[in-house]
């Protein structure tokens, strides 16, 4: 009558087993999305650094600190 083994909600497949699968499913899916987010963040940071270097090069060229030849040579290295 509810006191013996097998009558509780967590003692059978439809109780404990399903909730355990759901728990681990949420953990695995959450981990997947966390890794995906971190990879995208690192790729965005890398692109920002490249754009910044090119922008600095353009600014130096605009100020006359480097000539056409130097600008083209440095630009080719960046891209």
Helix-strand layout with pairing:
Elements: H1 13-63, H2 68-78
Helix pairs in contact: 1-2
Describe the structure.
- It is a single chain.
- This protein has about 80 residues and is mainly α.
- It has one domain.
- Helix content is about 80%, strand content about 0%.
- The chain is built from two helices and no strands.
- Helix 1 packs antiparallel against helix 2 (about 70-79).
- The longest helix is centred in the middle third of the chain and has 51 residues, at about 15-65.
- It is rod-shaped, with a radius of gyration of 29 Å.
- The chain starts with 12 loop residues before the first helix and ends with a helix.
- The mean pLDDT is about 80.
Provide mean pLDDT, rounded: 81
Bulk shape: rod-shaped
Q: How much strand content do the residues show?
A: under 5%
User: How many structural domains can be distinguished in the coordinates?
Assistant: 1
SSE topology string:
HH
Task: Report how far apart the termini are.
Answer: 75 Å
Number of strands: 0
Query: Main sheet?
Result: none
**Segments where pLDDT lies below 50 for 5+ residues?**
none
Structural class by SSE content = mainly alpha
Radius of gyration: 29 Å
Give the fraction of residues assigned to helices: over 70%
Number of helices: 2
Relevant terms:
79 residues, mainly alpha, 0% strand, rod-shaped
Short summary:
This protein has 79 residues and is mainly α.
């Amino acid at each position: 009558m509810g006191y013996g083994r097998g009558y509780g909600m967590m003692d059978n497949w439809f109780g404990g087993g399903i909730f355990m699968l759901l728990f681990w499913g949420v953990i695995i899916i959450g981990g997947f999305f966390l890794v995906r987010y971190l990879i995208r963040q690192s790729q965005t940071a890398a692109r920002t650094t490249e754009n910044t270097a090119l922008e600095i090069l353009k600014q130096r060229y605009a100020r006359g600190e480097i000539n056409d030849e130097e600008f083209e040579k440095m630009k080719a290295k960046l891209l």
